[in-house]
């Protein structure tokens, strides 16, 4: 998807993960609906995927973002995250889920005064509509998710995707638009800034998804972009990387009762969303471009 340079404000969210409270708080803070009702709407809203899982209100988040896209199709862009793929719809063991949640209950009660359950979407749907309805609902949702683009680029040099650039820095935007494999990479790759992630000690598969600084810089130069806005890696949430050429957003505040405990344990904190002007070119991302998610 291409957004031309314009006298408009770009807001970027990512990794809402079933937290409708945080999403609605952001929309309220940026005055989204008031702006849409004005005679000259000037907001572009991009949400970079991972709408589902972890939090307790995935269904509410999906209904809200679909309604936003339906009501304001020219102002709202939804991309696909790694959670919006078929393998995330496998049935989750409720027993295992409860055991993992129980490990953190004492700490969570002390910090928040309530327990953050880890509701996965399969369980949420099963409880609301019955287990027999889950396959049919997933089938329809996958049809919707497969329509979502992998990346958004702007006329002022910003590229956005759920995770990170593809491994091959020589690809161009047409390659990305036409390749399912490149789209998959931009939903799963990660930028570790040459640091070892704590996840890697237990999950060596992360090595295959790493993007280093050199490949990242070459990719930006090749497609004519200056900065990259993404999400995906919760342990790096709200941080800038690669000489402030990239930011990783997670738009859920762990203080929300709908935020799952996993994101609390990963250190997401207050979460973040991005704000940029579409009428200026950015050489880097500053602290002013990153806003905390209101509680």
Give the quaternary arrangement of the chains. Answer: single chain
Estimated share of beta-strand residues: 15-25%
Distance between the termini: 31 Å
The number of helices is: 10
Number of strands: 13
Low-confidence stretches: 91-95, 196-203
**In what order do the strands lie side by side in the largest sheet?**
1-5-6-9-11-10
**Anisotropy-based shape:** globular
User: In percent, how helical is the residue content?
Assistant: 25-40%
Radius of gyration using CA atoms only: 18 Å
Mean pLDDT across every amino acid position: 85
Q: Which structural class do the helices and strands define?
A: alpha/beta
Order of helices and strands: EEHHEHEHHHEEHHEEHEEEHEE
- Report the major sheet: 6 strands, mixed
Layout of helices and strands:
Elements: E1 2-3, E2 9-13, H1 20-29, H2 32-37, E3 43-47, H3 58-71, E4 76-78, H4 94-112, H5 121-129, H6 134-145, E5 151-154, E6 158-161, H7 173-178, H8 180-188, E7 190-191, E8 210-211, H9 213-223, E9 227-230, E10 240-241, E11 246-248, H10 261-265, E12 272-277, E13 290-292
Parallel strand pairs: 1-5, 2-3, 3-4, 6-9, 7-8, 9-11
Antiparallel strand pairs: 2-12, 5-6, 10-11, 12-13
Brief rundown of the structure:
This protein is α/β, with parallel strands linked by helices and 295 residues long.
What attributes does this structure have?
295 residues, alpha/beta, 6-stranded mixed sheet, 10 helices, globular
Task: Explain what this protein looks like in three dimensions.
- The chain has 295 residues and is an alpha/beta fold.
- Helices cover 34% and strands 15% of the residues.
- The strands form three sheets. It has a six-stranded mixed β-sheet.
- The two termini are 31 Å apart.
- 41% of the residues are buried.
